[in-house]
Amino acid sequence: MSGEELFRLTHSKLETFRRCRKQYWFAYVSGLPWPRPEETPAGIVGTGVHRAMARLCETGDPGDGAAELDVYLRMPEHAAAGPGTAWWELAFAAYGRGVEAHRSILSEARWAELDSWAPAKRLGITVQSKADRVDRLGPGRWQVIDWKTGRFDLDEVVDRQLDLAHVIVRVVRQLPREATVRAVAWNLRTGEQRVRELTREDAARTMDYLGRMAAVMRAESEFLATPGVHCGFCAWRSRCEAAAQLEQEGLDVLAEEAEELSAPDDFAIEWD
Ligand code: SF4
């Protein structure tokens, strides 16, 4: 692999490839500028709570996170989740749960928003990931948290995200070989925690898998569209013929053919 440019992998890139290869082509192959993402109240709440949790992690003072969340939600462009809205209430309720979560974690050291990358030259890839919070709980024991604020999360997607964050934290923080990591997706809206207990061997297997995925992604040349419910969240939708066609025609073409196949003569029942 020496001399060859390393293939960059992120959680979003991998998930986009899995979801729809046309969307992947738009975002990572075409070179087109990315459309500005549409801001939704749920998205504003998510960003605001993440920013508040980062402040809380940095200083340990709940007032710092609350002040950050308050200012963020009062910004005119965030009026959809501003004071007086149900979204504002939801954001502060989630932050309240975040403060409880913070108090429940007893750690020797902690880091907010650990965003890093690491090359794996043997595999020809470079992996980038961000962990919302990392704690050293004790000698050889660590915790990685991804805060969630949505109504629900897809388990398999969350698991893959945690595995990626685990790999990066293990390398960037130079964890000893025998260290174990509790990787948690902690939903501050529902209070639910999804936990993965991960070891050095798990990290090696994740890297192995990423190397193979990178080879598949690099070899892709068709980039066929996979329209579905996810099109509703796709920033490229206005440029996507496949989604427009599906919306226009739906299954009518097949329904039409079915009508032709079941012409009355074929199924006529003769009664005496
Ligand atoms: S609109 Fe749907 S089918 Fe088209 S690129 Fe986006 S996700 Fe894929």
For the structure shown, list the relevant keywords.
alpha/beta, disordered C terminus, binds iron/sulfur cluster, 272 residues
Report on the structure:
There is one protein chain. The protein is an alpha/beta fold. Helices cover 48% and strands 19% of the residues. It is built from ten helices and six strands. Strands 1, 2, 3, 4, 5 and 6 form a six-stranded mixed β-sheet that branches. A hairpin with a 5-residue loop joins β5 (180-187) and β6 (193-198). The chain is globular and about 75 Å long. It starts with 6 loop residues before the first strand and ends in a 5-residue tail after the last helix. Bound molecules: iron/sulfur cluster (SF4).
Helix and strand sequence: EHHHHHEEEHEEHHHH
Report how far apart the termini are: 79 Å
* Rounded average pLDDT: 92
| Beta-strand percent range | 15-25%
Number of helices: 10
As a whole number of angstroms, the C-alpha radius of gyration is 24 Å
Principal-axis shape equals globular
Low-confidence stretches: 267-272
How many beta-strand runs?
6
Largest sheet: 6 strands, mixed
**Structural class per helix/strand content?**
alpha/beta
Bound small molecules, deduplicated: iron/sulfur cluster
How much helix is in the residues?
Answer: 40-55%
* Oligomeric composition of the shown chains: single chain
